[in-house]
Amino acid sequence: MLREILPAIPDLADAKLVDTVAEKSAAVRRLLRDVARDYAPVVFANSLGAEDMVLTDMIWNDGIDIGIFSLDTGRLPAETIELMAAAERRYGHRIEIFAPRHNTVQEFVAGFGINGFYDSVEARKACCHARKIEPLQRALAGKQAWITGLRAAQSPTREKLKTVSFDSANNLVKISPLADWSEREVWVYLRANQVPYNALHDRNYPSIGCAPCTRAIQPGEDVRAGRWWWEAPETKECGLHLVDGKLVRVTKPEVGAGGTAAT
Ligand code: SF4
After folding, report:
1. CATH number for the domain harbouring residue 185
2. Whose CA is nearest to atom 2 of ligand 1?
3. What is the whole-number distance in angstroms between the Cα of residue 171 and the centre of ligand 1?
């Protein structure tokens, strides 16, 4: 079960931890309001991970003027789609969905096969480009800033993650309001506020992407071990996130860490 792999769900009676989360939450809310005011139009790329649900709860509960979008790659797990629907019901808002262009997907499938991403890194990256990167570029077009749920502790290569940086690839400001949050703090927020989250997290999926490219992890495995598990670690990024203008890559296992990793 998840609790054997991820840190035990913290007891909400841990007053110090709850207070810390309350303080950090207030700071994030202030940041989100400032970003919405100073960088409009700004959007939040919601990949439906645990961190993303924290930000979704803050943005929609507080009525902050930040658009929320998700990339529907066409290969998402049913549980992720169900979470989208649950979030829309809970908050009374629509997530803006960006889907891949049908011709690029058809070209990928014709050239590499329906599950061709298993056959080579080249094919996998071509699929990620068609289903994620191109739609992301469309979602970010014309925006001043975008928001992500990345945390520095998610992997060694995200340690340098800054709350505010310039994303030179997409030519806009990138904000990661939860950069200094721990995985425990994320789950305290979700539990305390009864925020919906992906049911796969309770089945040993700390990091969730497309269904054919995500599996459950075993005790002791890196939190991203279930993503593109057939590839060498240094190739395991989809190209969506950059830190200091460089692609974030996983170069070594995250030893003994639990957590959720977006995208
Ligand atoms: S994660 Fe897998 S299915 Fe999804 S876009 Fe990338 S290669 Fe394609």
Report:
1. 3.40.50.620
2. 213
3. 24
